[in-house]
UniProtKB/TrEMBL annotation:
Signal peptide location: none
Domain Phospholipid/glycerol acyltransferase: 101-220
Name assigned to this protein: Phospholipid/glycerol acyltransferase domain-containing protein
GO cellular component, one term: endomembrane system
Length: 230
């Protein structure tokens, strides 16, 4: 026969242990993340404050917002790699330090941006990252204003509407010579073997270079490949 009181007591003890573990983890997460969240709010407030000055002092605002952004983005990278023990393996070419790049990546999980930030840190470009964002985010208090103030490209995915915005973004790189990583998650074109074969076929038919891997295109690579896209 089963000793029902003992079974109930054991189950209660097990539940209590799980509650204790969950509470400890939740408390640890709260202690680690809360300072970062507060700094994020402060960052958005500072960048929002800088927004009115961007018309008359664009270079100064760009540099200042990049410094402010670096502090917050580096912090969340520390949380991922140091506090939570995240391991990022990097292979391939050594990226040139301080050079402008167009970064195109598949967006398959919430941790994708950690991978890009890890590379940006090594290239000295973390604060210079600018991410393509949906234009609707512009009206989100603090977050949207911060994105807007940093000059991130805000697009609707409609070329006729986005052309002016993209001209503005690339003018910062081409005309003002701002060092920058322009980052785009190609969410609608996630990698599959079938899509890759279709891409190779299209490139061959249109005399375009065949992409081998998702990559970071630096100025030098863009210069080397410019003739192919002319």
């Amino acid at each position: 026969m089963f000793d029902r009181p003992s079974i109930i007591a054991s189950e209660i003890l097990t539940i209590a242990q799980w509650v204790s573990i969950l509470y400890t983890r939740a408390f640890r997460g709260f202690i680690i993340v809360l300072p970062w969240l507060l700094e994020l709010v402060l960052m958005d407030l500072i960048i929002s404050f800088l927004l009115p000055f961007s018309y008359h002092f664009p270079n100064w605002v760009y540099d200042a917002s990049s410094i402010v952004a670096f502090t917050n983005w580096n912090w969340i990278q520390v949380i991922f790699e140091i506090f939570n023990g995240g391991k990022i393996t990097i292979s391939g070419d050594v990226l040139p330090e301080g050079e402008t790049a167009i970064v195109i990546a598949n967006h398959v999980s919430w941790t994708d941006f950690y991978m890009i930030q890890a590379l940006a840190i090594r290239a000295g470009m973390l604060g210079r990252c600018r991410w393509f964002a949906k234009i609707e985010l512009r009206w989100v208090p603090l977050l949207g204003w911060g994105i807007w103030g940093m000059g991130m490209p805000m697009v609707s995915r409609n070329w006729l509407k986005d052309k002016k915005e993209l001209d503005r973004v690339f003018a910062g790189v081409v005309v003002k010579k701002w060092p920058q990583w322009l980052i785009s998650f190609s969410e609608a074109t996630r990698y599959t073997p079938k899509k890759y074969e279709e891409t190779k076929t299209w490139c061959k038919e249109n005399n375009r270079p065949i992409p081998k891997t998702p990559s970071i295109s630096t100025n030098q690579r863009l210069r080397n490949n410019s003739a192919a896209f002319a």
